[in-house]
Amino acid sequence: MTARIELRTSPHVVKGSSVERIMFHVVLALLPIAAFSVWQYGLSALALIVTITLTCLASERLFNRLSGQYSTLSDWSATITGLLLALTLPPSFPLWMGAVAGFMAIALGKALFGGIGYNVMNPALVGRAFVQAAFPVAITTWVPAFAPNRFSEFVPTTFTAPLMTPPDVSAWAKSALDGFTGATPLARWKFDNVLATPHDFLSGAVTASAGETSAILILLCGAYLAIRKFMDWRIPVAILGSAALTALLFQMIDPARYPDPLFVLLSGGMMLGAVFMASDMATSPVTPKGVWIYGTLIGVVTVMIRYFGGLTEGVMYAILLGNALAPLIDQVTQPKVFGEVKTIKGKGA
């Protein structure tokens, strides 16, 4: 009896995980963050999350049919896009604008490039970038967290009719919570030189997008993915580490002007972007050196935009820039193949 030996080329996969399984666990990791957002902002946050997620799923199915592809709804990628996109928007964002954001996230961020795995930028951030340009007022309209009436009534802007100007929510917000300023911690620091306390961030009692205030919860959910090896832990570590070091350097230069590194890490979309968006497998580098360069670039650029740009937040643009440079980073950081002999131009091999 002869034994049969089958030889295969590398990589030699001992235990693999399907796309569906990885994406499903990412959805599980996002659910606690979404639930905390609903607890903070109530019915409007819930309606926004549901509307955008359903729009992403419907758009995904539409483009599947138009391209003649089989349905990819079961791979959970559209669900992740919907959840992440909703968590980056203000809870007061009108639902019809959220639907536009979800459609554009799938159309421009995913379907245009051929579907999952072919997109060059994070689809959720593409959708957010579109509505930030299209609806600049609505995307900077904020409501207070933990308003007493959040489970009994919607924010007045939630059901704004399409193409109509959303109503002013400042009076509603101030009546819902005394002392509401209507500005995010980043805006208050940049324009009023007022710093929020770490307790404000850790308790979630700050004005921000739907999923940006639960820093500890985001880290715990990210740790779950990293432990299960569904996320490259080096990317968020590089982003947060480089942002903290950059902030520390500027604070040492001028402590009165620049905030401490903890404020930089906890404010805005830093945590959500570093853990769940920059680590997207399809849009981040794969080489060991590449992920450190990629993460460092995003962290430094985020701080530079916050400190010297006209916008109060820079995470979205920093990640999109990192996504665009990811193929180049992979190319210049490719490890040397074992046994490879480098040929000098002008000479024979």
Describe this structure in words.
The chain has helices spanning 19-41, 43-67, 77-87, 95-109, 123-134, 170-176, 185-192, 198-203, 215-227, 234-253, 261-266, 270-277, 288-308, 315-332. With 349 residues, it is mostly helical. It has two domains: 19-141 and 143-181, no CATH class; 183-332, no CATH class. It is globular.
A few lines on this structure:
By secondary structure, the chain is mainly alpha-helical. The chain has helices spanning 19-41, 43-67, 77-87, 95-109, 123-134, 170-176, 185-192, 198-203, 215-227, 234-253, 261-266, 270-277, 288-308, 315-332.
Q: What secondary-structure arrangement, pairings included, does this model have?
A:
Blueprint: H1 19-41, H2 43-67, H3 77-87, H4 95-109, H5 123-134, H6 170-176, H7 185-192, H8 198-203, H9 215-227, H10 234-253, H11 261-266, H12 270-277, H13 288-308, H14 315-332
Rg, alpha carbons: 22 Å
Summarize the amount of helix as a percent range: 55-70%
Structural class: mainly alpha
**What is the count of DSSP helices, taking H or I runs of 4+ residues?**
14
What keywords describe this structure?
349 residues, mainly alpha, 2 domains, 14 helices, 55% helix, 0% strand, globular
